[in-house]
Amino acid sequence: MANLPHVIDVTAETFETEVLQKSLQTPVLVDFWATWCGPCKSLTPVLEKLAGEYGGAFVLAKVDVDQQQQIAAAFQIRSVPTVFLLVGGQPVDAFQGAQPEGQLREFLQRHGIEPLAAVEEAQDVDAPLDPQAEVARLREAVQAEPDKEELKLDLALALLRTGAAEEAGQLLDALPANLATDDRAVRARARLGFSALLKDAPAPAVLEQALAANADDHRARHLLAVHHLVGGDAGTGLEHLLELLRRDRNYEDGLARKALIDAFRVVEDEDLVGQYRRRMASLLF
Q1: From the centroid of its chain, how far is CA 131?
Q2: Distance CA 279, CA 258 (A)
Q3: What is the pLDDT averaged over residues 271-282?
Q4: Which end of the chain is flanked by fewer CB atoms within 10 Å, N or C?
Q5: What band does 242 get if pLDDT is binned at 50, 70 and 90?
Q6: Going by DSSP bridges, is the β-strand pair 59-64/7-9 parallel, antiparallel, or unpaired?
Q7: Are 90 and 30 in contact (CB under 8 A)?
Q8: Is 37 a catalytic residue?
Q9: Which of the 8 DSSP states describes residue 81?
Q10: Pick the catalytic residue: 29, 30, 34, 37?
Q11: Is-catalytic flag, 61?
């Protein structure tokens, strides 16, 4: 195999170190493949491309099932290609068969795995600025170049930071397909979804009282978590969502798991997200 960044070949001797231990710090995709497998020949190059593009946001570990039968047996591999995602030393999801690049990106996004460039972009977006002044500047830019759709995405993000969720949502809805799936747009939609939940929600103090009276008031716990996430207290928000998952993982068709994954998209503290990803995985698996 060519020396590709963030791509490794794994053996039974290296699996503990290169996969299980590494997944405690960084998500690891384990690609079970074979030399005779046609679909593997189309899937593996795409996975390798994404591993390089994501810049270390995940590691691709390749396992030749014919050469590494012990690992394949441990994962009960029945067909190839089969790909497992390991986080925190545990498998959290998997898929079989060749997948198009768009679906692979969606798979990664569902687990809060974003290109590291997107993290840097988000840091640039959140640089100290007067939010209202930034909105005014971007409105002028959009008027000057109405066909430049990227400016409309920038304006939507700026509006979200001022609380103008309705106008931001309208701009996001009008984005062309290539920008609607942009990492920043996906993050913005997650933020927008959280903000919408609070439109008619009780105040945090009321929700705290409800939880004090009944620790199994799942609706109150969920809304209180959202209040904290929108208000910038990511740790408390994630803790409430994790507790909701612990108490009832099936509440509202898996609401806690879905909310945690959305929260991973909007929380920009990578260490905090990694910690809660691992704790979520330990509850689910």
Answers
A1: 26
A2: 15
A3: 88
A4: N
A5: very high
A6: parallel
A7: no
A8: yes
A9: S
A10: 37
A11: no
